[in-house]
Design goal:
Elements lengths: L8 H7 L20 H6 L4 H19 L9 H9 L3 H12 L5 H10 L3 H32 L1
Helix pairs in contact: 3-4, 3-7
Bound molecules: zinc ion.
């Protein structure tokens, strides 16, 4: 399933306005359209997103630790994959959900990993982890709220 076609309230409202009359996020109650961008930055989902990021970092760390430079730390990997600011974290979440990868991150990975194969493994694992966690944690919780 494509994340672009995710039946967010904004999309449902667009596709079936008679059935779905509202399109704002039901998690936070702010007057924000529920779409991928908002689901990446919604204040009510911030704690869940932090868990998703930490889980993903640990996963990548376990599989790449032996391929990394000696003084490279897990915090460095976190900075690399999710940036250093809140704004950057939101931006990368959006990209990973769409299956995209920031060129800047790619170039930084090239400096840390020598083999191209390892870089594509990291890219695939990161994207998979973010998308899977999004479904299991964010989307499921949101769906339960819609049904209520
Ligand atoms: Zn919200």
């Amino acid at each position: 399933m494509s994340f672009r076609m995710l039946p967010t309230l904004e999309n449902l409202n667009l596709w079936k306005p008679k059935i779905m009359s509202f399109r704002n996020c039901i998690m936070c109650g702010d007057e924000e359209k529920e779409n991928l961008n908002h689901l990446s930055s919604c204040k009510k989902l911030e704690k869940t997103w932090k868990e998703i990021e930490n889980f993903t970092i640990k996963l990548i760390w376990i599989t790449t630790e032996d391929k990394l430079q000696k003084d490279y730390k897990i915090q460095d990997l976190k900075k690399l994959l999710f940036g250093t600011s809140h704004k950057e974290a939101i931006k990368t979440r959006c990209l990973y959900m769409r299956g995209l990868f920031d060129r800047l991150i790619f170039n930084q990975l090239k400096q840390v990993f020598t083999r191209r194969k390892h870089i594509s493994e990291i890219i695939n694992a990161t994207t998979f982890s973010i998308q899977e966690c999004f479904y299991q944690l964010v989307w499921r919780e949101r769906c339960e709220k819609v049904i209520e």
